[in-house]
Each structure stands twice: as C-alpha cells, then as structure tokens.
Amino acid sequence: MSVLDNFESWKDFLGDRLHQAQGDGMNDQTVSNLAYEVGEYLATQVDAKNDQEAVLRDLWNVASEEEQHMIANMMVKLVQNEGTK
Predict the structure, then answer these.
(1) pLDDT given at position 62
(2) Given this model, what pLDDT does residue 85 score?
(3) 14/18 Cα distance (integer angstroms)
(4) What is the DSSP letter of 3?
(5) Rounded to whole angstroms, how far apart are CA atoms 71 and 33?
(6) Rounded distance, CA 2 to CA 39, Å?
(7) C-alpha to C-alpha distance for 46 and 17, rounded to whole angstroms
(8) How many other β-carbons are positioned within 10 Å of the β-carbon of residue 47?
(9) Ramachandran area for residue 25 (φ above 0: left; ψ -120 to 50: alpha; else beta)
(10) Residue 81 in contact with residue 16, Cβ under 8 Å?
(11) Domain at 3-79: CATH code
C-alpha cells in the first residue's frame, strides 16, 4: 500500500519528512520551497488516490503561483504535528 492511498498515512509520512528535514537543519524557507515543488509535482504528475488529494489538486490547479505557495505552506503547518516524531 502506498502512502498516497490513505490521507492520514500521507500526513504522517509528510510529518516524518518534515521533522527529519528540520532535524537536519533545513530552514523554514527551504522547507517552504520544497513543499511548493512537491505540490507542483503531485498536481501535475500523480493521480489523486483519495478525495482529499483530489480536492488539493483541484485547488492547486486553479490557484495563482502565490496561492500555490500559500497552499504548500498550509500543508507544512497541517503536518507539523503529524508523524511518528
């Protein structure tokens, strides 16, 4: 089963990666830039596996670049308390 199949698993996975990046000293701006790149890749290259991912993809696709950065930052905030820590 892929982490993309279940939204809770996806959030845990992203939370773990966020904590790892922060633990390795990655600053907030770099995290934000990577979140944007991941969002762009997922929206254009990966089929949504659940309703939540479909909504995020649709929002991403209608958003301006500035709004896409905001979505990416909100996803970082959403997962900051997720994962196995």
Answers:
(1) 97
(2) 52
(3) 6
(4) G
(5) 12
(6) 17
(7) 19
(8) 9
(9) left
(10) no
(11) 1.10.760
Q: Around Cβ 68, how many Cβ atoms within 10 Å?
A: 19
Residue 57: partners with Cβ closer than 8 Å, 6 or more residues away? 42, 43, 48
As given in the structure block, the two tokens for residue 37 are: 């790149």
Is the CA virtual torsion 49, 50, 53, 57 positive or negative?
positive
Task: Tell me the residue length of the chain.
Answer: 85
pLDDT in tens, 19-71: 888 889 999 999 999 889 988 988 998 888 888 889 999 999 999 999 999 99
Phi, psi values for residue 49, rounded to 5°: -100, -10
Q: Where in the chain are the domains?
A: 3-79
Chain position carrying tokens 């939204």: 7
Residue scoring higher pLDDT (11 or 75):
75
CB atoms within 10 A of CB 24: 7
Separation CA 62–CA 19 (nearest Å):
30
Which pLDDT score, from 0 to 100, does residue 67 have?
Answer: 97
